[in-house]
Amino acid sequence: MTTKIELESVSHSYVRGTTTVAAFESLSLAVDSGEFVSIVGPSGCGKTTLLSCIAGFFPPSGGRILVDGKPVAGPGPDRGVVFQSFALFNWLSVRDNVEFGLRMRGIGAAERRARSDALLAMVGLTRFADRYPYELSGGMKQRTAITRALAGNPDVLLMDEPFAALDAQSREMMQEELVRIWEATRKTVLFVTHSIDEAIYLSSRVVVFTTRPGKVKHVLEVNLPAPRYDPHARTSPAFIAAKASILDLVREETVKQFVEETRS
Amino acid sequence: MTRTRSALLSTGSVVAALAVWLVLTEGGVVSPKVLVSPIGLVRQFWTLAIDGYLGTPLHVHVLASLLRTTFGFACGAILALPVGLAIGYSPTLHALLSPFLAVLRPIPVIAYIPLAILWFGIGEFSKVLLIAITSFLYMTINTAAGVKAIPEDVIRAALSLGASRLQLFAHVILPESLPYVFAGVRVGAAVSWAVVVSAELIAAQQGLGYLIMDAATFFRIPAVYVGISLIGIIGFAIDRLISFAERRLVHWSAR
């Protein structure tokens, strides 16, 4: 296994009003190629900020982020990003959303079409290709956004609480869908979530962050029985055991944060 | 409320207002010197349409006003789009330019008239300029607001999909701000059309504004009513036209 993403004591702080807020501090983490890693932790622990740094939307204040051994210099199509807000282009059809990145990179219409056809079929959106985002349900919107991120065939998929805005049923369906996609494409996925269940169900490893400034508190290997997309995986003993230990870890941090907030 | 119900209510209220107007004027409650009757208005419109106003056919006046509005509005809009996009996108440009826009916006266009005459004379340029300034100010603000309203994530999504800065402008920022641009077009066109009356105060020889001013000066009150009604009806038609284009072009907005 080769290392795909490497964080070398990465820190980030930003100014809010008159105070400097440290989002996360001296984070070190290596994600292997083809791994599915989730990050969980209390609110405001810098999970999303870290993902934005890896995506290259802004540089971290300290440390280095390497993808394929090269420092991240800005956003790029080698790292697909999926947002909680979907961030779809509302004036474009589902197909045009999916083809957007290919079009920006000057890929011809025929090739774009072939690629979007294949991807839309893979995620079951073929019937919706000519619909517009406002005609879709939340689950369908996020399915479109994931497909759009996959279209450029990135090695890395960065997902920032992608299912947080969905109702419980579509959320579980999308999780199963994502596992299926991951098993079919073997992308390196870094997945930020608030849901411990979601993290365990999806990931090969779960990274637990401390309260702000976020640090790696614990990394837990998850070994759910295959096939992963079996819904009963969620009630297997391995799942319950993993959930119990992560719950304890996150709870410790949440209590710490609560004490901190009530004191100040 | 359903579309049909709302259309019925609107039609009903217009018919009711016409009826009250008819009864008040034809019934002798209000003197025709104070308020023209609908029948008198139609008769006067007919006379003007056939004989023209002071030798100039009515449609020439209407076209003169429409032409000035269209030209002034187009100039303002063409300038407003890039300026609005730039101000909305760049906080630096916003900081540099917004004080001027903020001071200029509340000044009614009629206040510029003496200056426009002083600087540019009493020709067409001054009139078109006033309309252009008005539509420019409204549309710049709306376009800038449209750019500012674009969610950060949408811009980030485009960048991470490989869009260059130029592509970002053409393929994301422009279309994403179109609903706001259209709101600006609608207000800008309405205000431009209203401003044409003020602009035609500058020694115009043609146009609905000229017609109203001239008719008022010589106490041809029914002609004044015709001019005012025409401005209202044409303004309404312009708004419907833009609204139609808006529904076709920015189908994704307001859903």
Structural commentary:
The complex is a heterodimer of chains A (264) and B (255). Chain A is an alpha/beta fold. Chain A folds into two domains: 3-78 and 155-263, 3-Layer(aba) Sandwich (Rossmann fold), CATH 3.40.50; 88-153, no CATH class. Chain A is 38% helix and 25% strand. Chain A has seven helices and ten strands. Chain A has helices spanning 47-55, 94-104, 109-122, 138-151, 168-185, 196-202, 237-263, and strands at residues 3-16, 19-32, 36-40, 62-67, 70-71, 79-82, 156-160, 188-192, 205-209, 216-221. Chain A has a six-stranded mixed β-sheet, sandwiched between helices. A four-stranded antiparallel β-sheet of chain A has the order 2-1-4-5, covered by helices on one side. The longest helix of chain A is centred in the C-terminal third of the chain and has 27 residues, at 237-263. The radius of gyration of chain A is 19 Å and the shape is globular. Chain B has 255 residues and is mostly helical. Chain B has a single domain, classed as MetI-like fold (Orthogonal Bundle), CATH 1.10.3720.10. Chain B is 78% helix and 0% strand. Chain B is built from ten helices and no strands. Chain B is globular, with a radius of gyration of 22 Å. The model of chain B has no long low-confidence stretch (mean pLDDT 90). The chains are: A alpha/beta (264), B mainly alpha (255). The A-B interface holds A 52, 55-57, 74-77, 79-81, 83, 85, 87-91, 100-101, 103-105, 132-134, 145, 148-149, 152 and B 151, 153-154, 156-164, 167, 171-172, 175-176, 178, 250-253, 255.
